[in-house]
Amino acid sequence: MVRKILEKKIVSIPEVMEVLEDLHKKRKGEFDSFQESSLIYARTFSKVDHKKVEKIKSMLMKTYDLDEEHAIQVINIMPGTVEELRVIFEKDLKSSKLGNKELNDIINKLHDLAK
Fold first, then answer.
1. What is the pLDDT at residue 14?
2. Are the C-beta atoms of residues 89 and 70 closer than 8 Å to each other?
3. What predicted TM-score, i.e. pTM, was given to this entire model?
4. Which of 42, 80, 82, 92 could covalently link to 103 via disulfide, CB atoms 3.0 to 4.6 Å apart?
5. Is the backbone of residue 65 left (phi > 0), alpha (psi -120 to 50) or beta?
6. What percent of the chain has pLDDT over 90?
7. What count of other Cβ atoms lies within 10 Å of the Cβ of residue 17?
8. Pick the residue with more confidence: 91 or 40?
9. Which structural domain range is residue 85 located in?
C-alpha cells in the first residue's frame, strides 16, 4: 500500500492513540503490521487521557512560553522530577532558563491536570 503524506503536524502519543483507536474500529480491527505496532506502542506509552492533552499543552505554552514541540514532549514523557524536566529542556535556550520553582510548578500542574 502506497502512503501519501497529506499533512505534517506535531501530535502527542495520546492523540496518536485516539486516532489509531478510531481507525481500528472503523476498519473492524484490520490493520497492517505497521499500524498494529503503532497502536500497541501508543497504548503502552500514553500517559495521559487524550481529552486532557489540549488543556495541558495550552497551559505549558501560555504560562511557561514553551513552543509546541517542547510542550508535546513534556506531555509524552509526563516527568515526575525536576531532573527529568531539565533533560527535555536541555537544548532549548529559552526553556533551560526556567528556575527550580517554575519547574516544580510545571510538574505539579501537569499532574493536577492529568488527573
1. 97
2. yes
3. 0.87
4. 82
5. left
6. 71
7. 22
8. 40
9. 50-114
